[in-house]
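Figure 3 (text version): structure tokens given as input.
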């Protein structure tokens, strides 16, 4: 980093924290009553997966620096106030908030998302994780031959028998661990390797069979995942104050839990599924399959709640109507719990349907204003990284040729 002083440059001795190194480049487009800006994010997915963001690969995740920039612009008025992410996903907002010492809560309908989010921001004992991993590997080598692959068609379609046997063994070990943050950490690592050791493409959103994929050794993949997470977690813990709350809850954003009726939610950050992109339950079908035996514990017995998710695909007329109806109801909820002066930041993008533009950003602005919020800022986001063979770039590319289609960070004030 350099700082310009008079007519010459000197090297700065101040090291910028990694979570501030990749903030968007912001260009003003309109400085009127409603500010309009462009946020350019030229960084790669790998660069933006710093610290615990890399713990769990979450398809459809918004860039970490988007949450970071919003929090930089809108700090809390006091230590008691908090940010709420009502489409929490894998906890991007919670990680960025904790790095800045801001109290935060997340809410998601998927128990996998809630678990991953909470692990990312936990102060887990890494030495205990590594000790448990050593015990697990020793046990695995002695007992792996005692396990068989599931005989159902789903397992046979997506997993080689050898991989399914090994996954079954590791799952058995984890299921029998005493409930603890160490167990949670290892379960996230286990779920995190499911796609890697399957027959599916690693990087594509919707699972697709990759006939050329080389089978990976499951216990090696698991051990590597745990060790990588440990390294990133140590770095994260070194940057945060563990006294700053960061908690994700399982629930439906159409009816926020009573605990948020305290009037202290100064900012709601919301990243709903993008219309006509994909539905999350099918995307994570492999992970839900291997996680099913953990589900009862992590949901308090409320199983399959994730299947009632907000649907975003395919964007036919009926689904599109339901999509905007859901958004209206969930932002009526944030409006209900917030006091005057609080903010709502929505990260959302336009889509195409039958090759015609659906102006999701503008429609969202209109419905949120109808609720009573005041529009104060519109930011149009560009990204540069590739989207993958099955990610449908004609629906999701907001940089380059698709100038009509907008990806927005829209900020409102109550």
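Below: residues designed for each position.
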């Amino acid at each position: 980093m350099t700082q310009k002083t008079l007519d010459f440059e000197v090297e700065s001795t101040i090291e910028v924290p990694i979570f501030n190194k990749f903030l968007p480049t912001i260009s003003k487009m309109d400085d009127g009553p409603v500010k309009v800006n462009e946020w350019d994010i030229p960084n790669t997915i790998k660069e933006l997966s710093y610290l615990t963001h890399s713990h769990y690969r979450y398809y459809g995740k918004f860039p970490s620096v988007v949450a970071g920039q919003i929090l930089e612009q809108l700090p809390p008025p006091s230590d008691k106030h908090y940010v709420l992410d009502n489409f929490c996903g894998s906890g991007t907002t919670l990680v960025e908030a904790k790095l800045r010492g801001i109290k935060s809560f997340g809410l998601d309908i998927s128990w996998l998302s809630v678990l991953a989010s909470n692990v990312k921001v936990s102060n887990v004992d890494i030495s205990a994780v590594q000790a448990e991993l050593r015990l697990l590997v020793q046990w695995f080598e002695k007992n792996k031959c005692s396990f068989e692959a599931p005989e159902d068609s789903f397992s046979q379609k997506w997993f080689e028998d050898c991989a399914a046997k090994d996954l079954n063994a590791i799952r058995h070990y984890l299921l029998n661990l005493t409930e603890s943050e160490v167990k949670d950490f290892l379960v996230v690592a286990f779920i995190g390797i499911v796609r890697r050791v399957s027959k599916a493409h690693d990087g594509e959103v919707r699972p697709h069979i990759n006939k050329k994929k080389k089978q990976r050794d499951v216990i090696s993949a698991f051990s590597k995942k745990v060790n990588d997470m440990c390294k990133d977690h140590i770095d994260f813990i070194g940057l945060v104050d563990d006294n700053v709350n960061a908690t994700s809850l399982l629930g439906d954003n159409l009816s926020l839990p009573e605990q948020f009726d305290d009037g202290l939610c100064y900012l709601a950050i919301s990243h709903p599924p993008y219309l006509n992109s994909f539905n999350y339950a099918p995307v994570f079908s492999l992970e839900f399959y291997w996680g099913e035996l953990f589900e009862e514990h992590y949901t308090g017995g409320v199983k399959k709640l994730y299947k009632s998710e907000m649907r975003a695909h395919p964007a036919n007329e009926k689904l599109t109507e339901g999509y905007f109806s859901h958004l209206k109801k969930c932002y009526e909820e944030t409006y209900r719990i917030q006091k005057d002066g609080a903010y709502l930041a929505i990260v959302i993008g336009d889509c195409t349907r039958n090759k015609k533009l659906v102006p999701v950003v503008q429609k969202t602005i209109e419905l949120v204003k109808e609720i009573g919020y005041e529009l104060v800022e519109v930011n149009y986001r560009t990204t540069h990284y590739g989207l993958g063979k099955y990610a449908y770039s004609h629906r999701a590319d907001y940089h380059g040729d698709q100038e009509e289609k907008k990806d927005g960070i829209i900020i409102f004030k109550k």
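The longest helix spans residues 317-337.
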